[in-house]
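Write out the bound-state structure for magnesium ion.
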Amino acid sequence: MRRVALLGATGSIGRQALEVLAAHPELELCALQSLSTPLDALSEEHGVAHAQVGGDPIELLERSEPDVVLNAVVGFAGVRATLWALEQGVTLALANKESLVAAGELALAAQSRGGGLLLPVDSEHSALHQCLAGCDAATVSGLVLTASGGPFRGRDRSQLTAVTPAEALAHPTWSMGPKITVDSATLANKGLELIEAHWLFGVPYASIEVVVHPSSLVHSLVRFRDGALLAHLGLPDMRVPISYALTYPERAATPVEPLDLVGLSLDFEAVDDDAFPLLGLARAAGERGGTAPCAYNAANEVAVHAFLEGRIGFLDVAEVVEETLARIDAAAARDLDDLVAADEEARRLAAKGLQPA
Ligand code: MG
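---
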């Protein structure tokens, strides 16, 4: 029996994780956490003794003694649980990409002390993890992340000035929560994933490409030095990477629709950096290092929130992030306190950037 603590239980990943857990009797749900949604009904339905709404997740994790922490919290709020699991050597199934973006260096240091497994739940990174299984790192020449392109693929800048939150929330292939769906529309999500891939797989930014793939059937690829590419294919269904991480390395049977290959064609396009500058800004923040990725994430969270509330336009999201990054010093974080301070400073600068000049 594997005991699973589910953080972010009421979000999109949380709900799909509950489906996966229900299909696998060898997995026991031992703890539930949500940011603000009540959990009474869910705890009763799943017979979970430990549940917590809001507050510090560490106390809940220490009480419930999980074998696996599925961290599906949205945003920087997921950092504490990520660092705790890695430090304790508890297997971390990570859907909270922001924690690795903001705290990549601290997370890897915690993992090397704790010695536990870090399994990505992001579909692209799960794909890369699977393509890289059993490979000698020296044979890998690069990673290719695929991006659906979001609902505004093919539009130029002038066609993006007036788009609404409702339009940004209509994702063509993946069904996800509002923050990540807007991030998919701006390509900030791919920017976060680029930084996430760098930390997860130890590959330099210059060797990580991003390519637009509208049907989201190829979830990512690995290039090898002999010219071979390994790709991971499947229907866009988050239950697959969730199941992979929770049952690793058994790859337990999961009731998903099979992908019909007949008649299938795979299209790829270049990213339009002019219309979607947040990907390039993420690459620059990653290469700059220190707390620059943390600031990128913080400014983006503030700007996306303001966009969803109708306070700024779609293209302003990238501007707020760019201006924030121009104003920070990006010094490295020695510990979580430094990181929290860098996150707060970037949020303050981003909020200032939202005011009319
Ligand atoms: Mg993803």
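---
The longest strand covers residues 27-34.
DSSP finds 14 helices and ten strands in the chain.
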